[in-house]
Amino acid sequence: MGRKTILLLIMGVLGAYYVYIPVPDNIEEPWKLMLVNTYMKTLTDLVLFIELLGINHAMNIVMFFMSFQEVPPTSDENVTVMETTFNNVPVRIYVPK
């Protein structure tokens, strides 16, 4: 029973060390900043681990994860959204109505 308690305590301390970052007092929601920072650190560590294993290059993995955040262009009553290219560069144009 003693080993499990000590292991749980060590894992808790290491988890808190991984999550905690010092933030200024004037930030309204420091927990949100810590959550986003933990998400980014975990994602970065995962990407570097996958690259270390030789599965894929880090940039390809990051591009794969970023593809989940792509938002399709949607127009509404206030904005018209168009996708086009300028000099072979894809751009999204937002035109207010």
Structure description:
The chain is α+β, with helices and mostly antiparallel strands and 97 residues long. The chain has one domain (1-96). Helices cover 53% and strands 16% of the residues. It is built from 3 helices and 2 strands, in the order αααββ. Strands 1-2 form a two-stranded antiparallel ribbon. A hairpin with a 2-residue loop joins strand 1 and strand 2. The longest helix is centred in the middle third of the chain and has 24 residues, at 30-53. The chain is elongated, with a radius of gyration of 21 Å. The protein starts with a helix and ends with a strand. The model has no long low-confidence stretch (mean pLDDT 90). This is Arylacetamide deacetylase-like. The chain crosses the membrane at residues 5-23, 43-65. Keywords: Membrane, Transmembrane, Transmembrane helix. It comes from Lynx pardinus.
- Total DSSP helices: 3
Q: Given the C-alpha coordinates, what overall shape results?
A: elongated
The end-to-end span amounts to 68 Å
Largest sheet strand order? 1-2
Counted beta strands: 2
Class of secondary structure makeup: alpha+beta
Helix content: 40-55%
Sequence stretches where pLDDT stays below 50 over 5 or more residues: none
How many individual domains? 1
Mean pLDDT, to the nearest integer, reads: 90
Order of helices and strands: HHHEE
Quick one: biggest sheet? 2 strands, antiparallel
Strand content: 15-25%
Gyration radius, to the nearest Å?
Answer: 21 Å
